[in-house]
Write a structure and sequence with these properties.
Four Helix Bundle (Hemerythrin (Met), subunit A); 5 helices
């Protein structure tokens, strides 16, 4: 299977997942950014930011072939509007990168580093698929936090208890 077929599939997958992701992010109130369901859990605001940020990982995987955790440009969490704008930019950048990917870009490995030290390296196609799975996983976590705070959970793969579509 050619890399272009897989990248087209990933493009479609991101587009499909983006609708429900947007619905979740737009419902997160700033007043709950510090909420944690357990002391070892991440804060709701951080989780929402992670969900908004993961599409950027796809672009960075394709365009620069590396993410260094020590120097990664972290978006400052502030307002729901800013979070949504950040998400939309990351989403569009990921889709554009997948639509315009070259054989040269895809042939290089992806590396995750921390302060220059390689934590792991993998083929870019594997890293892109893994990022999408990671994104969906954290969006699922986000819906649990939403439920615990009585925030309406949107329909994702079918009706939710809050949005009956039949």
């Amino acid at each position: 299977m050619s890399y272009k077929i897989l990248c087209d599939y990933f493009h479609s997958e991101i587009e499909a997942e983006s609708v429900a992701t947007r619905k979740c992010l737009e419902r997160i109130p700033e007043s709950l950014y510090e909420y944690k369901p357990h002391e070892r859990s991440m804060a709701l605001g951080y989780l929402a930011l992670l969900v908004a940020d993961i599409p950027k990982w796809v672009k960075d995987t394709i365009k620069i072939s590396v993410i260094d955790l020590a120097t990664y440009d972290r978006f400052p969490l502030s307002t729901t509007k800013a979070l949504l704008d950040h998400y939309e930019k990351n989403l569009q950048d990921a889709l554009e990168s997948l639509a315009n990917i070259t054989e040269d870009q895809i042939s290089k490995p992806f590396e995750l580093k921390n302060n220059g030290q390689v934590l792991f390296s993998s083929p870019k196609l594997e890293s892109i698929g893994s990022s999408i799975n990671h994104w969906v996983h954290h969006r699922g976590q986000l819906t649990v936090y939403m439920r615990l705070n009585d925030i309406a959970v949107p329909s994702i793969y079918g009706p939710s208890a809050d949005e009956k579509t039949f």
